Amino acid sequence: MSKDHDSDVAFIRALAELLRENDLTELQVKRDYGEDDSLNVRVSRQTVLAPAPAPAPVPQMTPPPPPPTPHAPGTPNAQPPGGGDPALDPGAVTSPMVGTAYLSPEPGAAPFVSIGDTVSEGQTLLIVEAMKTMNQIPSPRAGTVKRILVEDGAPVEYGAPLVILA
């Protein structure tokens, strides 16, 4: 600090006032008095931030009803009593990957299975295409196809129920 202490104090007070009047948070100044004599001043203040307002509640969207389950003509579409979650059905065959489900080996061909068909363990139920690879989804056990839960060409998620076996 220079030899004129009173003028330095007045200078710092003026900087603090400038900080307050202009709603600044920090101000830094270097005042040179000579070759080896200078004054470095940094004046700052903390600002108290008001708490952010709580976000407005986002209205919950009701999911659309599930698409109609494809089934063979003239065959009743077996539904679990009470319309329960098909993923919880003990006969649910779920998708092992994310992809696109196909019910037949190629467009226009007969589907792998239809509702009411008896299947054996390891029999292909449908195909899930993932990354340009066609993955056959085999039946985990022998049984009867009770429901087909996906449409041909529909996207499927990992763990999504595809078929219900009885």
Q: Write out the CATH superfamily name of the largest domain.
A: RNA polymerase II/Efflux pump adaptor protein, barrel-sandwich hybrid domain
Gap between N and C termini, in Å? 91 Å
Strand content: 25-35%
- As a percent range, the share of helical residues equals 10-25%
Any low-confidence stretches, pLDDT <50, length ≥5?
71-82
Strand order in the largest sheet: 3-10-8-5
Structural class: mainly beta
Mean pLDDT reading: 80
Shape: rod-shaped
CATH class of the largest domain: Mainly Beta
The Rg value, from CA coordinates, equals 36 Å
* Biggest sheet architecture: 4 strands, antiparallel
CATH architecture of the largest domain: Beta Barrel
Biased composition (Pro residues): 52-73
Keywords: Biotin, Fatty acid biosynthesis, Fatty acid metabolism, Lipid biosynthesis, Lipid metabolism
Domain Lipoyl-binding: 90-166
Organism: Jannaschia seohaensis
Outline the secondary-structure elements.
Layout: H1 5-21, E1 26-34, E2 37-44, E3 92-94, E4 99-102, E5 118-119, E6 124-130, E7 133-138, E8 143-148, E9 155-156, E10 161-165
Antiparallel strand pairs: 1-2, 3-10, 4-6, 4-9, 5-8, 6-7, 8-10
Descriptive keywords:
166 residues, mainly beta, OB fold (Dihydrolipoamide Acetyltransferase, E2P), four-stranded antiparallel beta sheet, 1 helix, 10% helix, rod-shaped
Q: Brief overview, please?
A:
This protein has 166 residues and is mainly beta. It has one helix spanning 5-21, and strands at 26-34, 37-44, 92-94, 99-102, 118-119, 124-130, 133-138, 143-148, 155-156, 161-165. It folds into two domains: 5-44, no CATH class; 81-165, Beta Barrel (OB fold (Dihydrolipoamide Acetyltransferase, E2P)).
